[in-house]
Design a protein that fits this description.
The chain has about 375 residues and is an alpha/beta fold. It contains twelve helices and twelve strands. It folds into two domains: about 15-255, 3-Layer(aba) Sandwich (Aspartate Aminotransferase, domain 2); about 260-375, Aspartate Aminotransferase, domain 1 (Alpha-Beta Complex), CATH 3.90.1150.10. The strands form three sheets. It has a seven-stranded mixed sheet with strand order 1-9-8-5-4-2-3, with helices on both faces. Strands 7-6-10 form a three-stranded antiparallel sheet, with no helix packed on it. α3 runs parallel beside α9. The chain starts with 8 loop residues before the first helix and ends with a helix. The structure holds pyridoxal-5'-phosphate.
């Protein structure tokens, strides 16, 4: 078997080329390259897809998160230095968004089965300074959002969700993007719905937060639709994090085809569950009430590095999400001594297997055969 890639963007994106060129020509003729009709249409489509009232397109998920925290500061519900409970086991961007908004991340250990934030551990960390919970849907599996919301209600906390990896995931048939106070998405090229560059979005049912983020993404300027209505009035200290027309156009094209791609990801996950039979490899734990977006299929193995090497020897690429937990990164050295043993253990034992729509059945079969031979 020739090399099986961890992901193959050129092969996946090929089918969009023709329509993308058409969109490019249309946008060029329109002369409006940033937050025009394409961005507005995509925002409407994505809000509808998620079942939320509002969607704002932004530059990336990091900004989506940061601007969400800033919007609650503008509303006076969170203040500089307040504490945000964050999963210790996540990609560092989730945590950097908290520090970038001048808030204090308080690390919470994960659940040993799902690797998502452990709700029991959240409860233990709540104190007077706690103002929000950052829920991350790691690998595409929703966090325990309804349990988290119950706690948030009791202690008057905001729930900000990082769904960078979880487009189309559901809890009891309710889509991610319609559950938390604010949900943040990434359309980084390798994500389940990926642009041809950076892009992100926020969905919310809160009209106030929606209006503030819409303004913040454009230097805090009062929103306008037609250029002739622009007043150059700036209400907030905003940033430049706008969704451009080309990215919005490709995202609209991709949103249409996404349901069938998500089905393919689900098919691959089922195939792995049914056919990987090796006591050394622990398969992911999925909450039965949840519909997983299968951005990543992450197995656990005490001999992880050996397993990675074994796959490599058979030309199968794998990756580790993530090899160094955020609190062990030099960037966050002030947290390096925190006792986060489970997070550290997980980072040493996890391995992500290929899972993407263009992965062929024959390749899948070969990956499973290779995994089952591992000793
Ligand atoms: C869990 C998580 N949060 C946040 C981000 C940041 O997304 P972006 O690159 O769009 O800023 C990522 C991207 O990899 C992610 O996986």
């Amino acid at each position: 078997m020739k090399n099986i890639k961890f992901y193959n963007l050129p092969a996946f994106n090929k089918k969009y080329e023709k329509n993308f060129i058409k969109s490019f020509k249309k946008i060029n003729n329109s002369g409006r390259y940033i937050i025009g009709d394409n961005a507005r249409n995509f925002e409407k489509e994505y809000a509808k897809y998620c079942g939320s009232k509002y969607c704002v397109g932004v530059g990336n998920c990091f900004d989506a998160l940061k601007l969400s925290f800033i919007s609650y500061q503008i509303l006076g519900e969170i203040k500089t230095g307040d504490e945000v409970l964050v999963p210790a086991n996540t990609y560092i961007a989730s945590i950097l968004a908290v520090t970038a908004a001048n808030l204090k991340p308080v690390f919470v250990e994960p659940d040993n089965e799902t690797f998502n934030i452990n709700v029991k551990n959240i409860r233990k960390k709540i104190n007077k300074k706690t103002k929000a919970i950052l829920a991350v849907d790691l690998y595409g599996q929703p966090a325990e959002l309804f349990e988290i919301k119950k706690l948030a209600k009791k202690y008057k906390l905001k729930v900000i969700e990082d769904a960078a990896q979880a487009h189309g995931a559901k809890i009891n048939n309710k889509k991610i993007g319609s559950i938390s106070d604010v949900t943040c998405f990434s359309f980084f090229p390798g994500k389940n719905i990926g642009a041809f560059g950076d892009a992100g979005a926020v969905t919310t049912n809160d009209a106030k937060v929606y209006r503030i983020i819409k303004s913040l993404r454009n230097y805090g300027e009062q929103d306008f639709i037609n250029l002739k209505d622009r007043k150059y009035k700036n209400i907030y200290k905003g940033v430049n994090s706008r969704l451009d027309e080309l990215q919005a156009a490709i995202l609209s094209l991709k949103l249409k085809t996404y349901p069938s791609e998500l089905k393919r990801r689900q098919f691959i996950s089922k195939y792995y569950f049914k056919n990987i039979k090796n006591n050394l490899i622990k398969l992911p734990s999925v909450n039965k009430k949840f519909s997983h977006a299968w951005h990543l299929f992450v197995v656990r193995c005490a001999k992880r590095d050996k397993l990675k090497l074994h796959l490599k020897k058979h030309n199968v690429q794998s990756m580790i999400h993530y090899p160094i937990p955020p609190h062990k990164q030099s960037a966050l050295k002030e947290y390096k001594k925190l006792p986060l043993k489970l997070t550290e253990k997980i980072s040493k034992e996890i391995l992500s297997l290929p899972i993407y729509p263009t992965l062929k059945n024959q390749e899948l079969k070969f990956i499973v055969k290779t995994l089952n031979k591992f000793k």
